[in-house]
# Entry
Amino acid sequence: MEKFDAIVVGAGPSGNAAAYTLAKAGLSVIQIERGEYPGSKNVQGAILYSDALEKIIPEFRDEAPLERHIIEQRMWVLDDDSYIGTNYRSDAFNKAPYNRYTILRAQFDKWFSEKVSQAGALVICETTVTDLIMDGNRVVGVRTDRENGDLFADVVILADGVNSLLAKKAGFHPELNPGDVALAVKEILFLPQETLESRFNVKEGEGVVIEMIGKITQGMMGTGFLYTNNESITIGVGCMLSDFKETRMSPYLLLEKMKAHPAIAPMIEGGEMKEYTAHLIPEGGLKAMPQIYGDGWMIVGDSGMFVNAVHREGSNLAMTTGRLAAETVISLKAAGKEMTSPNLSVYRAKLDDSFVMKDLIKYKDMPGVFHANRQFFTTYPELVNKAAHTMLTVDGVDKKTKEREIFKSFTRSRSLAGLVGDAYKMWRALR
Amino acid sequence: MNVNVEEKLFQNRYKVDHGRPHINIIDPVVCTSECKTQQCTSVCPANCYKAEGNGSISLITDGCLECGTCRIICDDFKNVAWEYPRGGYGILFKFG
Amino acid sequence: MIHIVVCIKQVPDSAQIRVHPVTNTIMRQGVPAIINPYDLYALEEALRIKDKFGGFVTVITMGPPQAENALRKALSFGADDAILVTDRAFAGADTLATSFALASAIRQIEKGMPVDLVFCGKQTIDGDTAQVGPGIAKRLNLELLTYISSIVSVNTEKKEIVVQRRSEGGVQVLKTRLPSLVTMLEGSNEMRFATMPNMIRAARTTVKRWDRVAAGIEDISKIGLKGSPTVVSKVFAPSPKTVKAEIIQTNSGEADEMAATLLMKMFTKFPHVREQLEKSAA
Amino acid sequence: MSEETKKPAGKKKFELDPRLAEYRGIWVFIEHERGTVHTVSWELLGEARKLADKLGVQVAGVVMGAPGEDTRRFCQEAFYHGADHCYLMEDLLLKDYRNQPYTKGMTDLVNAYKPEILLLGATTLGRDLAGSVATTLLTGLTADCTELNIDVEIRSLLATRPTFGGSLLCTIQTLNYRPQMATIRPRVMAMPKRDTSRSGGITEHKLSMIETDIITKVLEFIPDENTNKVNLEYADIIVSGGKGLKKQENFQLIWDLAKVLGAEIGATRPVVQSGWVEAVRQVGQTGKTVRPKLYIAVGISGAIQHRVGMDASDVIIAINSDPNAPIFDFATYGIVGNAMTILPALTEAFRKELSARNAEAVAA
# Structure
């Protein structure tokens, strides 16, 4: 039986980054993907951050299927029938090279995978890896659902996504906790390009991102989002699974209500729904991160909880972890070293040196703060919307009185100590 | 508000592996007699789990989006056996 | 050893093409390309014959460069060789022009190894004409066997084949000589799940690309738009069905009465249903 | 086939090749097997009549078969259904349908008498024959049409057919080739009135072929009644049950009705998933697509996933206790009520009706 230098399980951003980097360095790589084509099982918002990909494929802008580069970011806080928000739009975002793009993952991943094949890796689709093959404590290969389907390699890189079944089966980490994952559902709605551009006040190639919190999540910890693609809009909402479990809220009903919100409905009017998707996002942060390497194996991407929930970043962490895992293997190979746990610990060191760990450490307390303090998703959106309404209604009441009313409404809903405490908690968590 | 999730799922592309559901309820009795909340029947984003009225739950995986929600929220009883479908089968996203 | 050529086509997954219920416009975005599902029955049957008698299976398709994916997939199922006939000159071909080009390419294949059987699917899901198979058979002087539900036997020595062919109300059992061309009926078998060694072999194989000249075509008036007698003059969405069911109501509301009323109404308006029922019930 | 809408090349200036101008008239292939003519042939004669009147030409039937009373009778019937003339080819080689002699016979007839349009039923036989004939004659063929029309000015057949799994329609023309050929789906064209006062002339033509020329031999014919295979796609009558039947035991009522009708059994996805019937009986998006003459849907709500598999049925009877069930939006007939009481009544009504008819037939 042929033995490869590396097996990569999964062809998402982390797996593709790993396989590409390994193959480019001349290693023999086989990558196993369970979808009909790479991307067919993958779901993301989706925003692509250029930096991580640029480090892998510098010329990606000339080839990759990108939808729109983002020139405007809106942050909305929604009450039942209103929102208050900020917009940031800058012409600086219109200067190449652009920093952020909307993408359609099924198309993007297919492109990325073609690059992987061209780099020399064997990409095998429509094949599910069912188990890791162990020799004692050491991973020596994978078992697939195909006849004669065992594959062997010096190292197995697990890029199998948030559910991370393989590592779980092998006992590398326990089942996910409902408090550490969010469930997001979304739809893609097609609109004529001109309609979309005039509706969002953008030119060809320019895009808008809207991030939303507030009543749209019905008191659950979560956010909504709306992204503009070339001739479609992606709209979705995600909340913590523990909240879904407790409220027994139906995710599609939540999405449907959000779409009907008076501030949102006009933006998506007339859109032709072409796909409905659901996906889990690992949001447990640093505290929920499992062991990410061992004898003959490494974990990259979502399967290692590499997501920055606060900044809505995931695919860039995925690509970076994939690349760093690959670089670890390449340097060990070059030095003639074995893929043992102590040797692979270089991967962790590389991560610690990168923005990946630095950011995860910075925000390690955020999930806890939000879990313990529902007011961020319930009371505050209502209060700030009411405050705006009060200030903007011209009704003969002087502004000073209005300010007092607003302050009172805040303290009525939440004690002064509570308000100060919340501010402190946020400051601590974000510090 | 009444939402028909079947209409949403109809827009999706599936290759169903007939006769090989990739998710199974391990012990149906647990759902019927021990689980009081049956959150899978409302939280599954594809409505694969249905309360049958007599306390039991039926599971049809054809419309499954393979998210993993049902498995994780069944943490009290761990009564969901969840695997990926055979290679190439199941949901096939066109846009993702 | 038996040499089988299987003709396949890469088609858009037509089940994914939707007509918007409100605007009645055609929605084509994100429609993936697949192997024409009917062709899989042909390929599987060819592979079964190969498994049984030993042999060599060549898959061939005419299409754009991306159609290579379809051939690679066919290789992963166990086909031995794959040829992509691709040339700008083929663009706009209808079924007659397509059968000309494929027949010509099969003649080129025969130069390397005589062909005993050609397999095609019943029809494609994007054209549905069911005409390319018969067209190839005619041009290559192969015995034509359409709508075959089962290959009963193949005698490699006597060069004979016995098949079951679907016809109205039953199946014909036919015996003929090789070489012949078989179009397989859907549901006649189930495509195998490829083995890992075959998956790896397919990923490593270079698919052969033949242009017009390599496919042995000199007369360009026979291919592409020029060689196509038919032109598509219009593509449009059907007008949505708006007539609702006629609800059967009777004075009494008794089940017997409703059933009788329903039958009376139906048999009056749709006499062919009655005819069919008399035939089936007998 | 191209997906884009193409303008027929230079439609404005289109002029028919003068060598093709001598092709005149519309032919319909009269398909018969085991003593009966397929009704699609009569439907096509009715349609051909309308087209011929637009073009100002004659309609002819083509009858091929073994010598005997039947072929003459079929010619007579063709006149009654709208033909002005018949071409008759009788030969023992044409006893059972085989591609080779039928193709030879038909192409010879076309070359001898030159029709401008040739129509066949889109049956397995018709499509098999049409494909070979069109390739031999090197002309265009539009398969599986659901609508026909004529561009009178350029004498062009406008053949409309479903494409992309029926979600779209396209209209196809065969401009500078003759004859213009099309196969037409059964039961989409109206059955013409049978007019026994009509008559016409018969032109006989010999088949220039001998048995030893024909390589393919028919060993046997196995009627579907003799096989136990579930054959939903080709079933003419289907009785289908959904979860509205509540319990597996109640599904017996579906079997009872199907037995009386000689029907196949279908089911929805939840029924199959519950194991009430085998998976091969599932109708819908992830199951079979069916096109029977009669589809009886019992306890089926009519969700889109089921609908796409059966809404091309000729006649749909829906039985459901929920008057707002979507199935009533597209069924032909609906009964709102409890399937447990309606099903036995319906079974009984069909039994009476059909046994009365069969008794009559026996008496006659």
Observations:
- Chain C touches chain B through nine residues (CB under 8 Å).
- Residues 5 and 118 of chain C are 5 Å apart (CA to CA).
- The helical segments of chain C are 37-53, 68-77, 95-112, 132-140, 196-204, 255-269, 271-281.
